[in-house]
Amino acid sequence: MHKVNHNSILIIKPKPKDAAVISRMIRQTLRKVNSRDNTPKEIRAWSEANSKKEILKKILDESRDSVVVKDRSKVLGFGSMKGDEITSFYIADGFHGQGFGSRLLFFMERLSKQKGVKRIRLNSSLTAYKFYRKKGYRRIRRVSYVFNRTKIPCVLMSKKL
Ligand SMILES: CC(C)(COP(=O)(O)OP(=O)(O)OC[C@H]1O[C@@H](n2cnc3c(N)ncnc32)[C@H](O)[C@@H]1OP(=O)(O)O)[C@@H](O)C(=O)NCCC(=O)NCCS
Q1: Whose Cα sits closest to atom 9 in ligand 1?
Q2: CA gap 115, 52 in Å, rounded
Q3: Architecture (CATH level 2) of domain 6-118
Q4: Is the shortest distance between the CB of 29 and ligand 1 below 6 Å?
Q5: Beta partners for 9?
């Protein structure tokens, strides 16, 4: 695990040039961490959904709010939301368990609240389910996120802000 000083962390809007490094960080995290709970086929489809092109689309989409967690120039996390839904939420493999996920989630919840969202929802990965439970999210039901005809099992969760 790589230890990072919380004082040097910034949570900011990503620039288009960050798309490649964000995509790489997500794909590595899926391969190293989520592969414990998902099949290789699911990880492949999920990785395709997080290609550089797809991340760039999210960064440029003005109907969403995307944020990046940075330690100086290093990308430690990425989150994206649209309306009342968090659609992407990742902390880089090797940096888990240091409170960065908590900080990113708090930031995104506060932003949603400022925009008038009363209840936030998300499709949790099987891996992140206990994290969201700890943060006050309630399970609604099991769902599938479908990408390229591959079903990725998730848990629909929500939290009143
Ligand atoms: C889920 C994730 C975002 C958590 O980020 P993190 O920086 O490790 O989280 P934090 O360090 O802020 O942890 C906060 C608390 O949740 C717990 N927690 C975090 N991930 C957990 C997990 N996978 N299982 C059980 N508990 C977990 C921590 O132990 C900590 O508990 P504590 O408050 O009692 O000390 C990160 O593990 C991740 O990116 N996972 C892979 C990608 C993923 O599945 N993303 C979600 C897509 S919906």
Answers
A1: 101
A2: 28
A3: 3-Layer(aba) Sandwich (3.40)
A4: yes
A5: 71
